[in-house]
Amino acid sequence: MVASRSLLLLLLALAVVVESIRIAISPAQRQVKRLLPKARELARSQELLQSVLAEQRAVQKRQAQQRVASELIESTSGLDRGSAASAEDASRVEACVAALEDASPCTLAGPALINALAGSSWRLVYASSFVRGSATPDASGGVPGLRSMLDMVAMTSPVALGAVTQRYSAARLEDTLSVALPMPWPLPKRTLSATFEQTLDATGAPGGLTARLEQVRTPTPTPT
């Protein structure tokens, strides 16, 4: 009987202890339950803020790229593809080129680079080798000596250099240049064009290409 009574007292004591612990913990649990929604909302707000900041950085990067591209185009204005450029003009163009490459580096390489160029066409606006006194080697990756030939045509002959264009088609490149042939008066000038057809190979480095000349086409001169 005494043992039963002692056991009963022990159970009552344990019940009191458990109840006191439950009462002590319950306010903290209620506080946690109230704070959990706020914590989740704060986490969502932080994620949204990070997304907005990332988009802002992307917009600023695009704006910087557009700005330096515009500055490059503006720096070549009136230079007749470089033949009318002074040393100061050439330095300004080279600085703009470096700024554009820094703001928008080419990351494509191999077949991805060739595929990205396929279907595009370009018109020559400026060439450093056209600058008088320039000793810049031909680093275009195109036909060896092409720039030197254009430089000679533009600077040492009565022939007037016309448009110079490039067209990419799959793994092929076409460089087309035109020149105005002087004719005795009253005959009209005649325009001669030549197209250099080349095969493109990727070097594997970002932006790296080499071209192999396949053939040269020279259509019949046309009067202008």
Write a concise keyword list for the protein shown above.
2 domains; 6 strands; 224 residues; 49% helix; alpha+beta; elongated
What does it look like?
There is one protein chain. This protein has four helices and six strands; from the N terminus they run H-H-H-E-H-E-E-E-E-E. The protein has 224 residues and is α+β, with helices and mostly antiparallel strands. The protein folds into two domains: 1-75; 108-223, no CATH class. Strands 1, 2, 3, 4, 5 and 6 form a six-stranded antiparallel sheet that branches. A hairpin with an 8-residue loop joins strand 3 and strand 4 (190-202). The longest helix is centred in the N-terminal third of the chain and has 74 residues, at 2-75. Residues 136-145 have low confidence and may be disordered.
User: N- to C-terminal separation?
Assistant: 129 Å
Largest sheet: 6 strands, antiparallel
Apparent shape: elongated
Tally of individual helices? 4
Uncertain residue ranges: 136-145
The succession of helices and strands, N to C, reads HHHEHEEEEE
Helix amount, in percent?
Answer: 40-55%
**Secondary-structure content class:** alpha+beta
Report mean pLDDT, rounded to a whole number: 76
Radius of gyration: 37 Å
The number of domains: 2
For the secondary structure, the number of strands is 6
**Proportion of residues in β-strands:** 15-25%
Query: Regarding quaternary structure, how should these chains be classified?
Result: single chain
